[in-house]
Write a structure and sequence with these properties.
Shape: globular
Distance between the termini: 90 Å
Structural class: mainly beta
Strand content: 35-45%
Mean pLDDT: 88
Oligomer: single chain
Radius of gyration: 26 Å
Number of domains: 2
């Protein structure tokens, strides 16, 4: 009896100081675990980077401390790296990521990070290294990713088609560096939250013939800015740290910059809008759905006038709202017989 009491007190003591047997934190996806397919279409000059996968657990907590030294419990995290595999002789690279991480910690998929980089940065000069850009983060829960929170919300699967330009930058302050990056409409990463996604498709388009170069300042001086040289030969000193994506698109196409901004697409003088074909179910109105009004590249546009005609001739009109969504339309009107985008409705 005395021995049992001693063992009991020892167990309580070691548990209190955190020396109890640790929980097995390894991943163990069930054989029948649902997977999320990640597919990247890779331009020939680029290579696909490692797929970084993060799982979270509400069972296996991490202990940290707040600003006042108080004990704080947060969800456990488990990261793994995966390689996207080329599909035959195609330019498609894919990976299937288990949604259920399993194990004693009951891991669930939280987010994935992937992207592209130049396979041979030295083609732009000796000692040139890859700088960044062309990255994608998709978040599958309500948490932030290591790169931050989401900029875009997606209801279903994630389909991303974006355009990029090569950007060669010379930096002088803090030591000379020369980097080749991918300049797009966003920053290094495109950030999406997609709670219900089962597929993620990323198709970047690289405009290799439109190189933009830049030189950083050599001394700290108020009024000195990065000097950008654009493909048309124009030189602009700008306070912004990245090239003007809309200026690059104007140089490439001859169209005004509004045509490449989902926010200001309605101002484009030669608009080519479209209605994405899928009718998205309205969660609050059973039997109804919404379409997405998009620009010619598939980006949702807001405050854009539309007039839709159902299969029996009924008319639905308005302006696209958040995420380019139309007003609720009954399922019985699908498929539509006609779509119009008038300059104004009334």
């Amino acid at each position: 009896m005395t021995l049992k009491i001693q063992i009991t007190f020892l167990c309580i003591f070691f548990s209190l100081i955190g020396c109890a047997s640790p929980r097995d934190r390894s991943l163990a996806p069930p054989p029948d675990s649902e997977t999320i397919n990640i597919t990247v279409k890779v331009p020939k000059e680029l290579g696909v980077e490692t797929l970084e996968v993060m799982y979270r657990s509400t069972t296996c907590k991490r202990i940290t401390h707040g600003a006042s030294g108080q004990r704080v419990e947060i969800d456990g995290r488990h990261g793994i790296d995966m390689q996207l595999q080329r599909q035959g002789n195609t330019d498609l690279f894919t990976a299937d990521v288990p949604k259920d991480g399993g194990g004693a910690c009951k891991w669930h998929l939280a987010n994935v990070t992937f992207g592209l980089a130049y396979k041979n940065p030295s083609q732009f000069g000796e000692s040139v290294i890859f700088g960044g850009g062309g990255g994608v983060v998709v978040i599958f829960d309500h948490n932030r990713s290591p790169q931050g929170g989401a900029d875009f919300q997606v209801d279903g699967d994630v389909v991303i088609k974006k355009e990029y330009f090569p950007w060669l930058h010379e930096r002088y302050l803090g030591g000379y560096r020369k980097r080749i990056s991918l300049a797009g409409a966003g920053h290094i990463y495109l950030m999406y939250r997609a709670l219900n996604a089962r597929k993620v498709y990323f198709e970047p388009v690289l405009h290799s013939d439109f190189l933009v170069t830049s030189q950083g300042t050599k001394v700290h001086k108020i009024g000195d800015f990065i000097k950008f040289t654009y493909p048309d030969g124009s030189v602009v000193a700008e306070s912004q740290a990245r090239p003007d994506y809309y200026k690059l698109q104007t140089i490439r196409t001859g169209r005004v910059s509004y045509c490449f901004s989902p926010r200001y697409y309605s101002r484009c003088p030669d608009r080519r809008p479209q209605l994405l074909p899928e009718l998205l179910p309205d969660k609050e109105m059973p039997g109804y759905g919404r379409y997405v009004v998009a620009d010619e590249w598939g980006n949702a546009v807001v405050s854009f006038a539309y007039r839709l005609f159902g299969k029996n001739g009924e008319k639905f009109e308005g302006k696209s709202g958040i995420n380019g969504l139309t007003r609720p339309i009954p399922d019985s009107a699908h498929p539509l017989s006609k779509v119009e985008f008038p300059e104004r409705l009334w």
